[in-house]
Amino acid sequence: MITDMQLVFLILIITTICFLVPRFRADLVAVSALLALLLTGLITVPEAFAGFSNSVVIMVAALFIVGEGVFQSGLAQKAGDLLVKKTKNSEWKLTIFMLLLVAVLSGFISNTGTVAILLPVVVSLCRHMQLHPGKLLIPMAFASSMGGALTLIGTAPNLIASQSLQEAGYGALNFFSFTPVGAIMLLVGIIYLWFIGRKMLDKPAESKEGGTEEFNASELIEQYGISNLIYAIKVPVGSHLHGQPIKSFRWPKNYQVTALEVLKKENGTRMKLPGRSRSSAEHSQRITVEPSYVVEEEDIFLVYGEKDAVEFLVDELGLILLDEKFQLEETHLAEVILTPQSRLINQTIRQVNFRKKYGLTVLSMMHQFSEPRMFTSDETLLYGDAILVHGKWKDINLLSQEKKRHGRP
User: Fold this and answer.
1) N or C, which end of the chain has less CB nearby within 10 Å?
2) Is residue 289 part of a domain?
3) pLDDT digits over 82-98, tens only?
């Protein structure tokens, strides 16, 4: 016969495991654990709802609102811009200023939110300065935790300690009661991270010998495993597609093939094939395919789809499947990471409708701790998902600014 204590530990173990699985939402896991305790008779109904009236719970909920206000107002983004402006190319300035900035912000808003807003800035600076990202990202994570000890609202345990003291009759702590101890911890932590931790994390920047730090589209395509999903098809002379908008053929719906780019003849001369040399690519006229694009003879389309689907499309429409391998335009590719503030979280790709709303094509996606793969329309987007999209840069920028205009739902 299982005892009440064993049942409590069993529920806690299952809850902890569910918290570790990215697919499960943390809030639903917490509510489910509370419901399990209630249904098993381990707690009463008044005890189950007592936490919702707790002042600490209300305070923590209010902190999320304040933190979101900091992000929506642009203050956090300005902090990131200040980091770029002040550090320039100095590793010393970048490390110290970053640690101080993260710690101070974490003393007033969510640690996770602070790291999320500064993470892309720090990674970009690391690449520019040819530093291994882990050399700064790991200290940044420690600094966010140490910064939580600077104020009463820096972290939830501080609030719980203050309430416990008040209930015991010793009086509540004030806002900066933790600051002296927290400041000493932060100072010692920064000294340790710079003189000791930094050396333990000292690794060469991830770059190929003789290479550059420039964006490499071919490497990104290989990482996402879609190199075998990009094909080149040519419109022959006399094709019935000539002079008609490409949307009239409904390639994505009828053939499960998406046209990404088109290579055209330039000034009536023979087209230079960009897959063969960089010099020829520079003289090619390359256009991102839009629904209104009018097909012309001898157009070469770079399409995305399974080989069987592409071959079926070619046979049905009388096109030519080329053997040459073509590289997608680097300026038309972007890797999108979903942050905790993204309004796309918990929506399916079908609901987001990247193609219609943003003019972008989703090429591949990757959940946290998973391998990249082709997506399905009913795939649910989660925090931390990485998505490879293709389209015009103005449309990619529009997607990145989505949260700033509309806010989180």
Assistant:
1) N
2) yes
3) 766 776 667 788 888 88
